[in-house]
């Protein structure tokens, strides 16, 4: 790239795709452009660029580009090249498995099953569904309601007597002719109608069948239809979502410190068909708009076998810079208009809130997953230069409101994750309100004196929420208690308190700034955030308890039972305050002298 000016001068203004190459010829980044010359030149101008772009430009050794006939072709080619090369500066959708369908076979007694891959077999396909668990749950429900078989044909053909599923009421045993082909086909037809979103039609048919069976005095059959109707009603209540046209995909986003969850909520025929979480690989400093754009193209264009299932409406939480381009590409590929909706009004807002809440829950589950916890602990060991893997980590935080109701928290982690049974809260007293350093000194002193007294296990690492001052305070406590072997780490918040910009403080070392996508930084953030959450919960409970403190608790002779009797008799503290002396004495267990004390306390006077 030494002759960058000459290279840029020879570029065309056509649309196309460009590939940034590294020192070994590896593909660092793949991008699309409406105008190749303008887009590639923008990387090398002197105007302000974000940190991700600066890092990319520093590593570029060569650039390849491919001219396309139009922007839509550029989008499709970009998607294919990203899938092929998986560049480290691109946002990568890591889960590109084929999506599952519900399959009903073409057989005189059709079976219902989950299916993946090309739809070559004869039969009926419903989907694709976002998640296999949704498919299995739906199949299980249809099997229970309509008694359809799920066994494969070789097993079906070999049966000479009903299997266990018949015995437990999950199959009608067509394998041994315990149901006629006509009756079985009726159940299959109802299941197909339900999967097509015509559940009201299914319920109407079942109601007619129930009435007919009842008139014919076939009460057991009528009861079966009644149970099917009840079950379908329950499913309807659980799945129904009001949608004008019936079909939509809703995309929610949640993340923290370089880890992002994209949640896809699929709604078909007015019902929630399923939800699926994606955790794409995100380069540092990627914007939400970049993440959503990359998800849309990679998710919908990576597998053309499902392209016809793209709905007409996709609800997103923000307007995208290349929104019209993505709409045009999807519309051209699927051959019907596709609209990206970013407004947050009415029903769309409810859908988006559902997807965003699901994304937050999925993100939290992923963040606290135990699968990669050992790797995180090892990364922390390497950061601190420890000879052995730490077995126990404790983190301390302080919470208060303008110095009121100060509470300190202690959370504990081991190689399996959070040990919630070992969490502790400490009410901090005897200090100047708002003095976090004094509060930290008190909680550490109390905590480790108690551990020494009980001869309990000591932590290998103590993490402090704070800077060098809090770190020095922690070391002072360890010296006082002769616990110099405990490793200390302080975490101070970055500029604007933004996650990913924290500063780590280790004794006798300069401050450390780790990349936002660092595994060990994510682990430290996870522990710190859990300590913060636990401290805030304790502080709020203590503050609210103090504000809810009843005046009755300060009156001698009024215990829990008499307080309860008074509150029940008068309906609350206001009723007690309005009561006269004579009315107070009518409460069982309240003498005249006690009534006088109550009256005096509530009216700030002497009786």
Give the SSE layout.
Elements: H1 4-9, E1 16-21, E2 27-33, H2 36-42, H3 51-59, E3 62-67, H4 71-85, E4 101-105, E5 112-115, E6 123-126, H5 132-146, H6 153-158, H7 164-167, H8 181-195, H9 199-215, H10 219-239, E7 248-256, E8 259-268, E9 271-278, H11 288-301, E10 313-315, H12 323-334, E11 339-341, H13 346-367, H14 373-384, E12 393-401, E13 404-414, E14 417-418, E15 424-427, H15 436-454, E16 461-465, H16 468-480, E17 487-492, E18 503-506, H17 519-547, H18 560-570, H19 573-578, H20 581-585, H21 592-603
Parallel strand pairs: 7-10, 10-11, 12-16, 16-17
Antiparallel strand pairs: 1-2, 1-3, 4-5, 4-6, 7-8, 8-9, 12-13, 13-14, 13-15, 17-18
Radius of gyration: 33 Å
Number of domains: 5
| CATH domain class name of the largest domain | Alpha Beta
Looking at CATH, which topology of the largest domain would you report? Nucleotidyltransferase, domain 5
Global geometry? globular
> How would you sum up the major sheet?
7 strands, mixed
Derived structural class: alpha+beta
Overall pLDDT: 82
Number of helices: 21
Name the poorly predicted regions: 238-244
Tell me the helix content: 40-55%
CATH architecture of the largest domain: 2-Layer Sandwich
The CATH superfamily of the largest domain turns out to be UvrC, RNAse H endonuclease domain
Number of distinct beta strands: 18
**What is the rounded distance between the termini?**
94 Å
Strand percentage lies at 15-25%
